[in-house]
Design a protein that fits this description.
Number of helices: 15
Number of strands: 0
Order of helices and strands: HHHHHHHHHHHHHHH
Strand content: under 5%
Structural class: mainly alpha
Largest sheet: none
Helix content: over 70%
CATH architecture of the largest domain: Up-down Bundle
Distance between the termini: 72 Å
Length: 355
Amino acid sequence: MSAAQLTLFFFSGIGILNSLFFSVWLTVTRRGNRLSNRLLALLLIAFVVRVAKSIFYFLLDGVHIAYINAGLVGKVMIGPLLLLYIYSVTRENFKWKNLYLLHFVPAMVLAGVTPFLSWSLIVGSYELAMVQLLSYLVLGYVEVQRFRRNAENQEPQKKWLNNLCLAVALVWLAYLSQILMGGLTVYAIGAAWFALVMYAVAFVALKQQKLFDSGKKTPKYKTSNVSSSELDKYEAPLLQLVEQEQVYLNRELSLPLLAEKLEMRPDVLSRLINEKFQKNFNDFINSYRIQAAQQLLSDPVQANAKIAGVAIDCGFKSISAFNTAFKKSVGKTPSQYRDQFKETGVAGSGSPSVA
């Protein structure tokens, strides 16, 4: 057995055993949302089937082509399972629907026809599978970014999903290198890469088990049995904190933290903001941050200040979050907004209503 074969066997075996262990843990654990856990377990098993194909192909002689190309079926299942898993985390009240089986029709078709395909068609199918996986990966990434912008107090889930997409993207790149370069050595490197990525995914997930604690978010106002008239007494203290004390400048401000300052439950505060201002927490706080940013961007004294500095000063954690929120509210990017005052020399009021 050559050094490349030993490397392939060793790292593929590590990746397979690690993924199988994590899949079993996800299946039997009672923590979190069972549908999400099972979708993630199936995703890991799809990866296992794909990598096991490499072992069969390069290390065993006389293996029937149907077994070898089970890896193609596993590969085609990775994208749909990734997207559905992401949806199960990001979408409230996500439930399994038989309609989702349509995502797996290509895998079911391939499972039936691969024993009868010529080698050239099999190679072409692998290349099409790469395009399919990339498409699902892009859809998943877009959904994760939407979740990161809009979800309140879901930081562990945001980081986890973002890292999971990155991990799958890295494995996709390893697959791409195998197609472009070929050869046993490249396969061995790809297997090693897969093992490292899967180990990192399992390590992060098991270390941060709170990712699996809450499963779904509780219904929005499940415990908020406060009447509308009782909400009125909280409105003035809320505006005092936001408008006078400018708590929105705190980049770590969250719904629970603001609720603690007001000595009220987070669900009651969320309902207050929703009913009185027709906004969610993020949009409500960002409206004040954007107002402050407008004042800075239209101030001639701040004409040379960096956009990133304005974002941080106004309470945003990142320039990307600032640009997205500003463009959504004002209709222009921060740079475009500033430039219009450079041309006219007139400062803007920067006073959007939060009502």
